[in-house]
Every structure is written in structure tokens, then in C-alpha cells.
Write the C-alpha cells for this entry.
Amino acid sequence: MGWFASVLALGFLIFFHELGHFLAARVCGVGVEVFSIGFGRKLWTKRLGNTQYALSVIPLGGYVKLQESPAESPRSYPNQPLFKKLIILSMGSFFNLLLAFGIYLGVGLVGHASLAPVVGALTPDMPAIKSGIKIGDRIVAVNGTTIKDWEALYKAIQRAQGTITLQIRRDHLLNITLTPIIKTTQNVFKESVQTKLIGITPTQEQVWVRYGFLESMQRALGQLVNMCALIIKGIEKLFTGVVHISEISSVVGIVDFMAHQQSFALLLSVAFISINLGILNLLPIPVLDGGQIAIVLYESLTKHKLKSEHLEKLNLLGIALLIALMILGLFNDVRRLIG
């Protein structure tokens, strides 16, 4: 996938996020003055009804400008009850998560190529070779559960307790019972985790894996929850110093990453970036959705509206923080690209 197509894909993710805010505002009866993809000077505008649609020069986000005057208007955003404000502010992130869920669901229904559960090599002195497993064996079930690909085989081994029974197709079907050994390995955050191993590696053979609607729904929800948990944990590790700031990336890094993906991997990367956008926008940083939610909750709980000058200072602080993060991410990306 080329850079141009990657920029379009990123632009679509931003559009979908802002579409969530836009539709929520319309459903809640709030007027929308501007719906813009990008910031800064407007390159293209089109007015439909009371809303101006725009493409702006800085493609690092987008915004929906809600109606705020006249103050007494029922379509004015400040006049809305708390629950409507929270719906409007959170719906952008919800749409990003919804998009990722849709991608995962579509991949499950249409299918994708995956490594076949066929033994390509055996590790000496491990349970597999000791139990009689041979190169070329195709593992079709673990403890009675059908196995479609290597990923499902790995997960089934990790879930199993104690001794497991592998159903193998060789010249005929046979059952082999063995007990995995547990070794300490490292996860993506360099943390020590316990992993069950039997001592096999796959061949390069691939199979086409697809699922029925209900199973695809279940898998899509599971993938979404797991990715959300992974990203939240990554943010936590960044603040605690486990993940180094050199891992922070900018739009350049994101586009470059997407540009080097193909088909199935590209779809998964778009889903992952969409989840990132959704979660990061909920961080309590002024100018982001999470910062606006925090302000709305503060004003509702304290019955005290923040002064405009205080809001301006908070927004400037948020903008400064985002610019600093973008500069850091750009520095990291340039160093990686030329390194």
C-alpha cells in the first residue's frame, strides 16, 4: 500500500471519528456549524443547510463546531443536559471502536490466509518429539476442540490445563497425549510471562480461515477488547517508564507503517490505529474529547462554569502538549526512517 493510499486511509479514520460527533449532535438536536477534516485554513468548503463542510490544510485531525449561539436557542450546545453532552463528546471514540469491530467482523466472515497447523520442525528434548509427533503432522484438534490454524493451536495449548490430547492427521487420525512445559518468556512490554510450549514450529503452508456469523461476532468482540486492553496497558507503561518515549510515533510513522502493509495485515493495522484514535481521544487532555468530558463533568458536579480565560489557558496547555508529542513522534520517526 502506497503513501497516498495510507494518507487516505488515515483521513477516513479521522472522518469516521468526527462523523460520530456529527451524527450524535444531530440526534441530540444540537446545531452543527462546521464539520471539518483537518485544521487551519480551509482548502475546500461546501454549505448544506446550516452546516459548512470543509477540508483544511493541516491533516492531523478534524473537528465539529457545535452551535453555541444564540444562548437561549434549544439547539445551542451549552443549553444541553449533561447526558447529551457526554453522548456527543464520546461518540467519536465510540465510532472508532465500532469501525475496528466492523473490520474484525468482516475479516472473520470473508476469511483470511493463516499458517496451517502443520508441524514444520521439532525442538529436541521437548514434549512433542518425546511423544512421537513427526514433521508433517497436521494437528486437527486439541482436547476435542477443532483447530483451524496455527494461531488457534497456540491459544488452545495456552488455555489447556495439565495434560493435553492432540488429534493428528498423518496417514490416518491418531491421538497423542503430552504435557506442555512452562517457560518464562517476555511479552511486548518486556515483562516476564509464563508460556506453555510443546516444542513445535510451523511450516510455511497456509490455509484460508473463515467463521460463521456468531463466531465471527464473538471473535471480533474479543479482538476489540484485547486490543483496547493492550493499548491502555501501553499508555500505562509509557507513563511508568516501562515503554520508552522513543516508541512514540507521529502521523509520518503511522502512514509509513500502513504504507508497508498488504491486504489482511493492512486491515488489521487500520483497525488497530482506529482503536488507538478512539482511546487516545478519551485521555483527559484539554482540546481532546477526554479533556472536554472532564470539563463538562467538573462543571456539572461543582455547579461552577469555568471562566473563558481559564478555558483558553487549558486549551493552550493541551495544544502545547499535543505539539510536543507530535514533535517527539516526528523526531523518532525520522530517526527510524534514516537509521
About this structure: The first helix runs from residue 3 to 27.
